[in-house]
Amino acid sequence: MKAWIPLLLRFCLLVLLIAFLTNPLWFEPLLKPLTQNGAPAIYNQGSLLSLALLHLRTVAIATVAAMVVAVALAILVTRPVGAEFLPLSRSLVNIGQTFPPVAVLALAVPAVGFGEKPTLIALFLYGLLPIFENTLTGLTTTPANIVEAARGAGMTGWQRLLKVELPLSVPVMLAGIRLSVVISLATATIGSTVAAKTLGEVIIAGLQSNNLAFVLQGGLIVAALAVLIYDALSALERMAARRMGQVAQAA
Amino acid sequence: MIEIEHVTKRYGETTVVDDVSMVIEPRTVTVIVGTSGSGKTTLLRMINRLVEPTSGTIKLDGTDNRSVPGHELRRSIGYAIQGNGLFPHRTVAQNIATVPALLGWDTGRINGRVDELLSLLQLDPAAFGPRYPHELSGGQQQRVGVARALAAEPNVLLMDEPFGALDPIIRTKAQEDLLAIQKRFGTTIILVTHDMEEAVHLGDRIAVMDAGRLIQYATPAEILARPANDFVETLIGASDRPFKLLSLGTVGAAVEPGQALGEGIRAEASQRDALAELLWSGRAAMPVTAKDGSALGRVTVEGLLKRAARPQ
Ligand SMILES: Nc1ncnc2c1ncn2[C@@H]1O[C@H](COP(=O)(O)OP(=O)(O)OP(=O)(O)O)[C@@H](O)[C@H]1O
Ligand SMILES: [Mg+2]
């Protein structure tokens, strides 16, 4: 297949998404057949655009927080002083991943109340693992020869970390962040069960009023966002890897 | 001056470097040779403390190399790592600028130095400076590795098989370049190699290592004439020992009065080249000329053969 065809498809998807978010009424005829008894075909309890932006905001905050903590933890456990914490942090991060987000919501609400906060906590915990594991892989697989060259040039431990080990880990770290973002985009929808403003609201409203059109448009917007962000981050990753002469990892 | 005093390195039960003592004169080239695993790299890396000796001391110009923090010591000593070890995420220019940047040189000075070094190693600064290491051939990468080691004008330069990946022609060129750089900056060079030919050609002194021990430490002529044991003899390769010996001297040193016919040879050429040329052209003698083209005399096969015999 020619290289520009996938690019064109993604561009079309982006245009379609923006059109739908800004002018949803244009698409009413398409969704009308999915509704019954003259129910509205386009979500009418708020702006889709602002819900999508709030959804992205929630994911962004949770991912940045997960990134900061996961990367810091990975750095700590790969230094001589922190090496003994490696098994402990591994299990903690794994628990974060295996604990169902719904259960986290249920536990968090009594503590922090309804709204965005419990969702952020759930997404944060859920997003830690891929970033942590990938950063760990990146930091521990820097070629020994290159680390030795950095030592030989007179870099201190911190300088090696900042100038050599972290930059060389960027492609693998980005892969972890990409996974984490995509998981969070989907998972954020359940935040609306505890009154967080996300695209989940559209889906829940559809489920409650038995309106298939709502469910579908909520789901499709999330899916389109996920696909576009996934692709954008993959491209970034390939760019970073190519720059270092590494073979781009299969996305 | 580098003084290595009773240095030993053990990893667990195995002794990798075994009670090595040697003194390296300033502004000389010392070549460490030996078989694979004999401890050459380990000995080299103890000088800049990438490896800490189990016992013994190493002094640089009279001061113990443990008197400054390791990373500061290493900024003052050039190190070309075995297999180049360039940073893949940094351009050639950034790679070369590593130590000057750590030392806080200003940008103008760094750029000037990078360009100077690239030109010195026959790489066009404009073409190669902005490239990434993976965009270079293996030989070019090695030269960049050498440039990086030289960047901060170190007095001492440690080189671990710097010319391993080069073809014979580029290798000879790189060796000439290195000797020129060494003369120009008066750098003390310690170089590791597997190649006895390279050792004889480059070294003011050669250190032969076997199983962690320093077997012989002497001038090339001395090692060729009086190998300390069978191991050294094997390493030299007994069959072309006379030719290696001839390669140490210049034609100028073997000039005899008289005249000869045919193509001449320059006085700076090696005696080995002169003998090869005489044998190949089937002559018994040929004229020797100085740099300015004036006649100095002649070299003869007979005279060269005498010089190829084991020194008494
Ligand atoms: N960190 C280490 N831990 C344990 N053993 C080591 C370590 N580094 C080196 N050795 C061992 O020490 C011996 C000497 O290694 P060294 O790298 O000095 O050899 P070398 O002479 O440079 O060999 P080569 O010519 O193959 O580069 C080898 O047997 C090697 O396995
Ligand atoms: Mg070695």
Can you characterise this structure?
The complex is a heterodimer of chains A (251) and B (312). Chain A has 251 residues and is mostly helical. Chain A has a single domain, classed as MetI-like (MetI-like fold, Orthogonal Bundle), CATH 1.10.3720.10. Chain A is 74% helix and 0% strand. The two termini of chain A are 17 Å apart. The C terminus of chain A is likely disordered. Chain B is an alpha/beta fold and 312 residues long. Chain B contains 14 helices and 13 strands. In chain B, strands 6-7-8-3-9-10 form a six-stranded mixed β-sheet, with helices on both faces. In chain B, a hairpin with a 5-residue loop joins strand 12 and strand 13. Chain B is globular and about 60 Å long. At the A-B interface, helix 7 and helix 8 of A face helix 2 and helix 4 of B.
Topology of this structure?
The complex is a heterodimer of chains A (251) and B (312).
Chain A: H1 4-22, H2 28-31, H3 48-78, H4 86-98, H5 101-112, H6 116-140, H7 144-152, H8 157-187, H9 200-208, H10 212-243
Helix pairs in contact in A: 1-10, 3-6, 3-8, 4-6, 5-6, 6-8, 7-8, 8-10, 9-10
Chain B: E1 2-11, E2 14-24, E3 29-34, H1 40-47, E4 55-60, E5 63-64, H2 70-75, E6 77-80, H3 92-96, H4 98-102, H5 107-120, H6 125-128, H7 138-150, E7 156-160, H8 168-185, E8 188-193, H9 196-202, E9 205-210, E10 213-218, H10 220-225, H11 230-236, H12 241-247, E11 265-266, H13 271-281, E12 285-289, E13 295-300, H14 301-308
Parallel strand pairs in B: 3-8, 3-9, 6-7, 7-8, 11-12
Antiparallel strand pairs in B: 1-2, 1-4, 4-5, 9-10, 12-13
| Cα-based radius of gyration of chain A, to the nearest Å | 21 Å
Q: How many beta-strand elements of chain B?
A: 13
Instruction: Kindly report the average pLDDT value of chain A.
Output: 89
Number of separate domains of chain A: 1
Q: Radius of gyration of chain B in whole Å, from Cα?
A: 21 Å
**Strand segment count of chain A:** 0
Major pleated sheet of chain B:
6 strands, mixed
Q: Class by helix and strand content of chain B?
A: alpha/beta
How many helices of chain B?
A: 14
